[in-house]
Design brief:
Blueprint (H helix, E strand, L loop, with lengths): L1 H13 L31 E2 L5 E3 L21 E14 L17 E14 L9 E12 L27 E12 L4 E3 L10 E3 L2 E9 L21 H4 L14 E9 L3 E8 L18 E9 L9 E14 L2 H9 L13 E16 L4 E10 L13 E10 L9 E10 L2 H8 L17 E13 L2 E11 L10 E11 L1
Helix pairs in contact: 3-4
Amino acid sequence: MRLVFAIVCLSIALSPISARSQTALPDAPSTPAHLHLFLAPEDLVLWSQSDTPVAQQPAEAAEPMTTMFPHPDDTRYYLAGQANIIFQSHPSFHSPYQGQNSLHGGGEYKTSLLGTVYGGYQPHRNIRYNTDFIVDMESAGGRGMSEALGLAGFTNLDVVRNPNLGSSPYLARGVIKQTIGLTNETTDSERTYFSLPTKVPVRRFEVMVGKMSLPDVFDLNSIGSDSHLQFMNWTVDNNGAWDYAADTRGYTVGGVLEYDDRDWSFRYGIFAMPTVANGIDLDWAFSRARGQNWEFELRHSLVHGRKGTERVLAFVNNAHMGDYRDAVVAYLTGKDATPDVDAHAKFGAVKYGFTWNNEQEVTDHLRLFSRFGWNEGQHESYAYTEVDQTVEAGGDYAGSAWGRSADKVGVTFVSNAIKKDHQNYLADGGLGFLLGDGKLNYGRENIEESYYNLHTWRGMFFALDLQHINNPGYNRDRGAVWVPSVRAHVDF
């Protein structure tokens, strides 16, 4: 809390200071938050011999600087960082009973802290055959409400479900990325944490190998993918039905092969699965355990003159997974005292599904997005969260409409569901790695989220966020829950 107080005081003291931007992070708006006038030769009023003004050029507005320090585009290296602090709470809510994995019915509050250092290096700068080395270090501290249990759409994507992992720094990403150009024709590319070139071939292959998070590459959405500047909920920033390969912290090891053309892209990835559901250890035997992903991306707008993108993703996971139906049958026939999906895990189990992702620019200020996801639901939720089907729609509005273009407001709605086998398992008292109230009066878990992200000075942002969850953990007997949040974010 002392760190939060220090950041608030610093932002108040420095907020009047303006600076002209030299570079901007990919998720930060690029239009000015304030109108800062400056004089240049072309801005001066020209006077005739009669002292009557004959011409005047309009003053230009300076771009807001959205990082604490500039990041030049013309160097072989890239070094940046982020700090993210989220304070969340919820008041007491209707809860006639709760189980081992329930969201606590009494009021509570928690703070999470996430810091990341992003490093990149280009050993040579050949536009057609570029190589990037990416190394990121991270530290995750604090805790989520109820230890991040009791909600399929948990309210804070920065939270690590297992707080016993501690806050010691760890390697988040270690990636080699190779571009293989198929033409000399180039197009502009924004320099980001995960891609250093500013020019790339229009037609190219890209190969990535190493440790990474699948949402770095798949299911991207410029409106709903960044929990540090946009929405915070797990099933808003990522597709909840996409049970992507990951350890407890959200990272895994594998490779991606991607082909990019002028208006479309296709990518395939294969990654290591955890040894147990949402576990920290990975199974290195790809012959028996692996997560495979295929995604097609079409850059096509539904509104003339505006940007739009559609993405369709399919995934197939092979792992040592259990089956909800087998666990329920064993319980009902007296073989197990309580339903235990882990007791029926076996190699050769397959979980599969698909997702759809859309984003559409409507006006200079307004953008809309949507997602749909489905998986087969009989095998246990294994890596991300306990969702078998999800539907989402929302949008954001840039603050340039009221003279603060680095600000942003967003609103979204997401509805999550689980299949009948999964419902029966929880209703009979089974525990997933996130859910388990002891019994279940099933209903869809419906979530509304809204935020206002305020740019104060350079790379400093503050946000107010409000989430409303109806039927937490798919249980009509509990809730609804209101979750207000305050977020402090700094880009270095």
